[in-house]
Amino acid sequence: MIARLFKYGFGVALGLLVAVAGAADRPGIPEQGIPQLVPASREQVTLTFAPVVKQVAPAVVNIYTRKVVQSQVPALFNDPFFRQFFGDPGGGQSRDQVQNSLGSGVIVRSSGVVITNNHVVGNADQINVVLSDRREFPAKIVGKDERSDLAVLQLQGVNEALPAIELAESDAVEVGDMVLAIGNPFGVGQTVTSGIVSALARSTVLVSDFRSFIQTDAAINPGNSGGALVTSDGRLIGINTAIYSGNGGSVGIGFAIPANMVRNVLAGILKEGRAVRAWLGATGKTITADLAKSLALPRPSGVVVDRVVASSPAARAGLAVGDIVRSINGHEINDFEELRYLLATMPVGGKAAVDTLRNGTARTLSVALEPAPETPLRKITQLFGRQPFGGAYVANLNPALSEEMGLEFQETGVIVLSVLPGSAAANIGIRVGDMVLGVNDTMVKTVDDLIGATANPLPSWTVAISRDGQAYQFRVGR
Question: What is the architecture of the domain spanning 49-69+93-276?
């Protein structure tokens, strides 16, 4: 409908311009035989998005969350002197404090499945979803994916088919396409803004691990997060997630997670309870202008492989260090972030055609789209006792765990998953993400190695860890 109205309206406007131009050349009485272009209806002179808005707005919802947190009241309120001025708030005691937040979401299944940003719902204790017709439903989190900043909700008590939005093919979007942003900015209620796609594959937005966003100048403000970015034919092209702003308001630079990423995360969470992505088993570097010159390439484009994990899909397909990855399934690769994004949007199963260049010879490899393996088993373990890692949760690092944590898999080993506050591990500075290399004279390769090395209490310990790629060794105790 919109396409027809735009096309017709443009034709009428062009005809009017021609008629005016002709009249300007021949002042006076209009030339005989030239028809007078008089619009016959409001539709012929009006460009409107109203039909699209009526179609998609009912599927865009407002999300209200509630979380109870404990805050510590300063101990100074134990002093009677201060209590006579400020009352008795329970000095030095924990008090419950309610945090409220709001955002937007999109119904993508008529059964009441809603997609939104992970940062909208977070670890909320209570989630309420309000439809455009003001009906309200409680919602539960089906699954979250922190790496893509997406979460899937299920509305409770739905006994009818709800309006849902169809997901578009986001790879088909082009710069200049018209789009609408629908959400709940600043909590004022559902709002629609229009604009165009300003850029594609933006990779400098640090709000998720997969940085390939659709940029738009449609006004997006706080509260729009999780809302819909839709095409002029009423399909979901992205989930609004971030803005670039110096004052907290829209300056015409907003970013949306592409629908292809949304589709893949949604399918994984609904089927497996978590996002499932294809694992290449290789890392690489973006080809810069200087690197392109040294490699005798005509322009800086693609990724040069710098590591291939043994027995990975990349290794089995024949990918090797030094190969240049130029495209996947016909999609040109401009940088490493684009490579990671394309893999993350491809459904697991089947194969991908990877175009490479080796020593000037072009080759196409067939790479299996498989999830990262759980080898070795994680064996998540909490360590106790008077030893350097007491109070820490550790696990065997494997490709699947690396994927979940957003790490580039290098090799197996023991990784710290969490550290209890006030524990022995916390007191000596052990952090999440540390890799345990050794304890005293024992080299640590597995969780069992670490358990054995710390089984007997000692007056002092020598601990070796790797942090952010740097190895450290320190002594604990006497």
Answer: Beta Barrel (2.40)
